[in-house]
Amino acid sequence: MVNCAAFGCKSHSQKKVLGITFHRFPRDPRKKALWIKNINNPDWSPTIYDRICSLHFERRFFYETDLRKRLLGEAVPTIFPDRSGYLQSKKKRMTKNLGIKLSKLTMKLLKNLCRSQVFI
Q1: Which of 1, 11, 75, 111 could make an SS bond with 71 (beta carbons 3.0 to 4.6 A apart)?
Q2: Cβ contacts of 21 within 8 Å, gap of 6 or more
Q3: Cα(53)–Cα(19) distance, integer angstroms
Q4: In what residue span(s) does the THAP-type domain sit (predicted)?
Q5: What is the pLDDT of residues 20-72, one digit of tens each?
Q6: Range list of H helices, 1-120
Q7: How far is CA 4 from CA 39, 75, 81, 95, 98, in A?
């Protein structure tokens, strides 16, 4: 079974979700370092078995053949919607320390902001 290496991602090969593919980390050390930086998990480094699922790549980084969905050479994972999950405890501490309770709208805006961040 293959699991996605991105923090908080629940994708794995046994789910068989149509359109989700799993991709190896690049062999080129510079590209690999950029992927690791974008994953933003400082205490982790990928093994030869780790994969990133297609949910973390923009559509422009793919080309499709009749049989497969492939990544272009310049592809970099930039979409991490669950990143807010491990930022959540920090937000709770900040709001507790400030004595402020954020409204649902503000939290939604913060979450969307976290989702739209591109780490290059």
Answers
A1: 75
A2: 53, 54, 68, 69
A3: 10
A4: 1-80
A5: 889 999 999 999 999 999 888 778 889 999 999 999 999 999 998 878 888 99
A6: 29-39, 83-98, 104-116
A7: 11, 16, 13, 31, 36
Phi-psi sector, 119: left (phi>0), alpha (psi -120 to 50), beta: beta
Nearest in space to 75 (alpha carbons), one of 18, 20, 120, 12: 120
- The percent of the chain in helix, strand and coil, each rounded to the nearest 5, is 40, 10, 45
- The model's pTM is 0.64
Q: Of 79, 74, 38, nearest to 56 (Cα)?
A: 79
69 and 54 Cβ atoms separated by less than 8 Å: yes
Eight-class DSSP state of 12: B
- Which bin fits 87, alpha (ψ -120 to 50), beta or left (φ > 0)? alpha
Q: Which amino acid is at 101?
A: K
